[in-house]
Amino acid sequence: MAPISTRTTETHLELRECDDAVCRLPDRDRADLLVHSPTADVCYDRPMIEIQHLQFAYVDGAFSLQIPELKLEGQSAVIVGPSGSGKTTLLNLMAGILPVQQGEIHVADTPLHRLADADRRLFRLRNVGLVFQDFQLIEYLSVIENVLLPCRIHPEVQLTRELRLRASSLLESTGLAEMKRRSITRLSQGERQRVAICRSLVLSPKIVLADEPTGNLDPINSERIVRLLLNETARAGAMLVMVTHDHSLLPHFERVVPFEPFLKLRESSATAIAESAATGVRA
């Protein structure tokens, strides 16, 4: 039998101690632990995201995105448009995953367009929670280890007892407390998405960006996941921005942003460029 590393044993013991500590807390204290975070002071009256004169294109030229102006404020907003139209690219720009080529993006009063890649990565870790359509969970880690994963990917973020307690509280609030040590492979699609939501909130982000989080779910579970996202981000004091092609989910959000106008701008720009090339006139 292969030896068990001392560090692995210590980690599991620490997790069990934290789980027991959460169970011993009164209900009110558990709720306070869940919602207490720097994001509790987030101001919903001013835009959380501001975009000005944004232009982005991939190197192969197969896709381009143009957004003259976009401001998102409040507790929730949804961007709706057809699949493959560029909504995920826009979210990646908001998260700082993709660099801004032209224009400006401010997220939580931070100018992402001025930050280097390493600075954007640290900003994203501290301020942005991400929820993906395909979950992006690690199958050889348990449920709670997946939730705590953001605490292990950057030296600036330390895995503390408070974060362990917060992870356990998030799992409890989403109905996954009994599954925290279960393998991801033993979860349903809806349960996996709940784990991904907990992971997005564990570091108390100011904003959660959700990329088609219901794309792999049936209508009933889609409704449940959207309600869960809205409830948990509100409890955490974070703003939720979601992209979707499902119009049945739009009534749940404070702000609905159609993606079609950006598509028309893109088509107009492409047409102008083509006409200019044909006539030899520079656009």
Features:
283 residues, alpha/beta, Rossmann fold, 5-stranded parallel β-sheet, 4-stranded antiparallel β-sheet, 9 helices, 18% strand, globular, disordered N terminus
Write the layout of secondary structure elements.
Elements (H helix, E strand, L loop, with lengths): L5 H19 L2 H9 L13 E9 L6 E9 L3 E5 L6 H9 L6 E6 L2 E2 L5 H11 E4 L11 H5 L13 H13 L15 H13 L5 E5 L7 H17 L3 E6 L10 E4 L1 H20 L4
Parallel strand pairs: 3-8, 3-9, 6-7, 7-8
Antiparallel strand pairs: 1-2, 1-4, 4-5
Describe the structure.
The chain is an alpha/beta fold and 283 residues long. It has one domain (6-41, 75-97, 114-279): P-loop containing nucleotide triphosphate hydrolases (Rossmann fold, 3-Layer(aba) Sandwich). It is 41% helix and 18% strand. The protein is built from 9 helices and 9 strands. The protein has helices at 6-24, 27-35, 87-95, 117-127, 143-147, 161-173, 189-201, 219-235, 260-279, and strands at 49-57, 64-72, 76-80, 102-107, 110-111, 128-131, 207-211, 239-244, 255-258. It has a 5-stranded parallel sheet with strand order 6-7-8-3-9, sandwiched between helices. Helix 8 (219-235) links the parallel strand 7 (207-211) and strand 8. Helix 2 crosses helix 6 (161-173) and helix 7 packs parallel to helix 8 (219-235). The radius of gyration is 21 Å and the shape is globular. The chain starts with 5 loop residues before the first helix and ends with a helix.
